[in-house]
Amino acid sequence: MMDNRQRSLRHAGMLVIALGSLTLSNTLHAKELIFEDKLDSLQQFTDSGSLSVGSNGVRLRGGFWGSSDGAITSHPIQIEGYQNLEISFQHFTNRLDNDESGMAAYSVDGSELVTLSSTNSANGNATFALSGIPQNAQTLTLHFSVDTSSFFESYRVQNIKLKGERPDPTDPTDPTDPGEGPDVTAGQQQYLFQCASCHGETAEGDPIGVPLNVPLNKAAAITATHNTMPPIDPSACDLDCATEIVEYLALTYWGDTDPEEPTDPVDPEPTGPILGEGTPDAGRCTDSVDLSAPILSNSLGFDLENTRNAVSAINSSNVDQLEFKFAHVAPNTESKRGAPAVTEQAVFVIGSNSLHAFNRTTGCEYWQYESEFELRTSSVLYEPSIGMVFVGDRDGSVHAVDAKSGQLRWKDFAGIDDSEPSQARQMLTGGMLFHDGKLIVPVSSIEVFTPIVEPCCDNHGMVRAYDALTGMDLWQYHTTEAAMIYGDFQGPSGAPVWSTPTIDVARNSVYFGTGQNYSEPATMTSDAIIAVDLDTGKEKWIFQARTGDVWTLFNDDSLTGLDFDFGASPILVQDGRTLIAGDKSGTVYSLNPESGALNWKRQLGVGSKLGGVHWNMAADASRVYVGIADKAPALIDPDIAMPDEERPGVFALDLNTGDILWEQHPTHMYQGEEFNSSFSASVAVTNDVVFAGSLDGVMHAFKSSDGTPLWTFDTDTRVQGINGILGSGGTIDSVGPVIGGSNLLINSGYNVFGGETQYQGGPGNATFVLGLPESSEPTDPEEPTDPVDPTEPTEPEEPTDPVDPTEPTEPDFTVGAELYEQQCSGCHGDQAQGGTFPALDQATDFEGFVGETTDTMPPRNPGSCDTQCATAIAEYLRATYW
């Protein structure tokens, strides 16, 4: 793993979260604070008309029942002796029409009011220099009011500060007087608007616990802010914005510390080995995308049932032979999102604002599609029947891209109809699914990160069905009703859908999970698994794991919700008889897909707002495999200890009972200390191998039957991309392993929850393509000790069937048993009892079974089990069950 000191600039350590917001304590060196009021009470103001007061300031409303519009006026503020006065405050409007406004004004010594602002769109921080005030002025009075026609329309004000300069009475030309210094007002305003909501108005670090009032390397801080902040939309703060913010922080808080010589120096260019160094740029492909190439992996869940159970040539006997083939590096990003869609020929993968198609074997690129906004869905969906690839963006739009050319076929905003895409109130996170011409799209909301409207919140989750070919809207399911204002808040809101839905073809149902409510009133649709009709979107049933979970990152202390979303997709298993779900509390649930009734549940971890069960689980015929993160705030603040009762790791549960069959709790070293590895990313299973990636950037392989560790691969390294770009791996989160044929693909790099710490690798931008050596394709785990080809008997006197039960020497069926476990048990069950495929525990025609297995099994990779392999499996089944 790369040394922390080498990587601190690229990952910006705590900067990725530690550079998200800022505020003001002393605007200029010579300015003093004259007056301050958070406006959580009216002790320093008189009021009139319709208004309300709370922890979020004073809300001035339109008059009702004979009351006038709301207004407040401060008691006279003494300003004698001060010059160059400056006032700052935060103000927000709600539902004001074009001819309505919120107003801020002042008067000096009882004179007429001077208007500072009159607006119907203010939202954020405002700073004004008060010009023209006489030097002999004694008092100043502040006035805020609203001019509107409805009680439901309002103007909110809070956090007022008045500052001024008091002239030096000694020698105003004293050469030792440092003067005002640079004007950092612009940086202060940018900090308040972009950063303060996460890092506190005085950069003390609340609510996320990462302070910015401590010295940081200026160059690294500017780079990290420009490239990664704010996390939800890094493009919102350009280089000038980042420079202004850092200059403001440096002059206001960092004091005399040399900004170029921080306490922990950083190496501007990380050093160390480069995986794939010298790899030539594969360039453009000379052929085109073949729509007839068989699909090896598609969508986050690999199938409509979200089993993440892949057919491949990889098993426990050859997994340790997986080797690095090449990496595809995404430009201009520090997070690698979206499970690639994989065919025998091509790989479709998300960059940042781009979608790429490259050759699975050579890495040459077929095409690149560019988007205005970041593409962020958890998977790429490829549908060859209509020749399209589907992805979603941060602004809530679906992109349907031509799979052969990379040209846009159609695009549509998937959010609430009366929302504007440019408001970015909704975003697409979960992967989409295609069935019978329909495209099923889950829709999440940005309001969990930042309040878009005041009062919070009026946005909610939904699922939408499109005609996949044309983009025509077919139906919508909304997780809450439209929000209404209730005093200082509005709701219901939240219950976002940020996981990939599940399709039950037999029941014509769509299942999906929801998150918490963002504001009261709480609804029965939050923290729930919901079933709707595939054709109409009509609700069938709701299973709610807990009630009253109301929370956002910016809520006040009155909301104590746990944020225990269902972020993992439901899994349909056991021939559609069981639905498995897991949430961020660390609990796994077994449900009846017909009614939503609970079969069993099993608590595995302590849970946290970042998991628990965070992303997708996996299942075969007899077990469900679960990654537990138990991520606490320590993930983004290394000074916070993880809870003693944490249980991060990988678990296997019995599908019928929920009993824990095995569990593994790997650890890793960081700066000489040992730490528990957390498993937030999706896990996957193929044959008898379970893959799980940990946050520190390591991919692990375990034997599915007993959890025996088989292999690891560290992605937290620099890498030369096959597309000519130098990049790196980092945190493995979200997507996890993607399995296709003889390949294992790993997205590495995730900066949503901060830079490198003892628990996670941090940012990165690489998709690693690993594969078996050619000699392992198709896979033959080991040479049978006793040939069992019925056409070549080992003894001349033996009959055509070499395992005639009359033979006095009992044959060894160990090889057949191992081959069955590797090749068949994932679909047909550990004891051949059946699963996603039919049971094999009943007698059948021996030669017919061998022939069919050789020709058609496994379905996605026929030929990986040859005649010798199929015969050994048949011998084992006949001796054991038939």
Properties at a glance:
disordered N terminus; 882 residues; 54 strands; mainly beta; single chain; 6-stranded antiparallel sheet; 10% helix
Shape: elongated
Radius of gyration based on Cα positions:
31 Å
Q: How much strand?
A: 25-35%
Q: Which class do the helix and strand fractions yield? A: mainly beta
On the 0-100 scale, what is the average pLDDT? Answer: 82
- Per DSSP, the total helix count is 10
The tally of beta strands, per DSSP, is: 54
Q: Could you name the ranges where pLDDT drops below 50 across 5 or more consecutive residues?
A: 1-29, 170-180, 258-270, 633-643, 777-810
The major sheet is characterized as: 6 strands, antiparallel
Quote the distance from N terminus to C terminus: 51 Å
Helix content: 10-25%
Question: What is the structure about, briefly put?
Answer:
The chain is mainly beta.
Walk me through this protein's architecture.
Helix 3 (185-194) crosses helix 6, helix 5 crosses helix 6 and helix 7 crosses helix 10 (867-880). The chain has ten helices and 54 strands. The chain is mainly β and 882 residues long. The strands form 13 sheets. Strands 1, 3, 4, 7, 10 and 12 form a six-stranded antiparallel sheet that branches. Strands 2, 5, 6, 8, 9 and 11 form a six-stranded antiparallel sheet that branches. A hairpin with a 4-residue loop joins strand 22 (388-392) and strand 23. The longest helix has 16 residues, at 239-254. The protein starts with a helix and ends with a helix.
